[in-house]
Amino acid sequence: MTWQQLEKMFNRALSHSFSKRKWLLVFPVLSLCGLFIAIGRGISIGSSRWIQMTLAFLPIFLVSGFLLAVGIVLIRIYHHEVKGRPIQYLKTIKGARDLFLGITYLAVPLIFAYLVLWMFMGVFYLLRAIPKIGEVMGSILAFGPFLLVLGALLLSILNLLILFYITPAASLKSHLRPQLAEEVYKEMKTSPFLAFVLPLLALLPLLLTVGILTLAATLTQMMYVEEGRGIFVALKWFFMMLPFCAILAPVITFFFNFSAESYVLMRKTLSDS
């Protein structure tokens, strides 16, 4: 792999990210994801920290199922574009129907693992609430919540890796095979450097865009969005999410385009080794 190859992959993925039809495909999915996040934020207003932690992480794993599904369609479309084949969006979506259910099930183990962490976190909150000795026990056992939060963050990173590596591996197949994760892990193990660098390159535009949009949303909250009842807070955040999602749609498209490029490169690296 050379820098010129990476540059070519990046530029080609970027050039196929700005499409009206792809935007119309991705924007409704992102809006639905934004609705989940807005509802979670509205419910968390005035809730305990234990509930707030759940509503901070759980939407991440819930929306990943939708992103996996739309990612399959985007990668199949991108594959046809690169090959110069004619593209029929409805035919591509119908051809991927059998994969949708199977690929979205990949989010279920992550959700279950996070709920287990959340329940253990609740035990620490209960121990801390014991009269007289609760604060002492909470201080001594502070490493427990730290490890649980760390586990939740690692699950979020694993969720991103699944989106980046599993989606292109599954998108060009007619059905989801149980050995798919093992095959992807074998490819990643062949070149750990590529396995680490490629997702970072795919995330750069996403992180930059999300950072700017989050800053704008935070400043809007400070200057305009007043504290109120949960339903009105959720509505305000949802309607702020609409332009957020509209701007984010091409960046999500690039993420999956580059994941397809990376998958092909990893397979070539495996075959050459």
Largest sheet: none
Global outline? globular
**Count of the separate structural domains:** 1
The percent of residues in helical segments reads over 70%
Helix-strand category: mainly alpha
SSE arrangement, N to C: HHHHHHHHHHH
Q: Please mark out the parts with pLDDT under 50 across 5 or more consecutive residues, or reply none.
A: none
| Overall average residue pLDDT | 82
Tally of DSSP β-strands: 0
**Number of helical stretches of at least 4 residues:** 11
Determine the strand fraction and express it as a percent band. under 5%
Which secondary structure elements does this structure contain, and how are they paired or packed?
Elements: H1 3-15, H2 20-44, H3 49-83, H4 89-95, H5 97-104, H6 107-128, H7 134-140, H8 143-171, H9 180-190, H10 192-223, H11 230-272
Helix pairs in contact: 1-11, 2-3, 2-11, 3-5, 3-6, 3-8, 3-11, 6-7, 6-8, 8-11, 9-11, 10-11
Short description:
This protein has helices spanning 3-15, 20-44, 49-83, 89-95, 97-104, 107-128, 134-140, 143-171, 180-190, 192-223, 230-272. With 273 residues, the chain is mostly helical. 30% of the residues are buried.
Entry keywords:
mainly alpha, 273 residues, globular, 11 helices, 85% helix
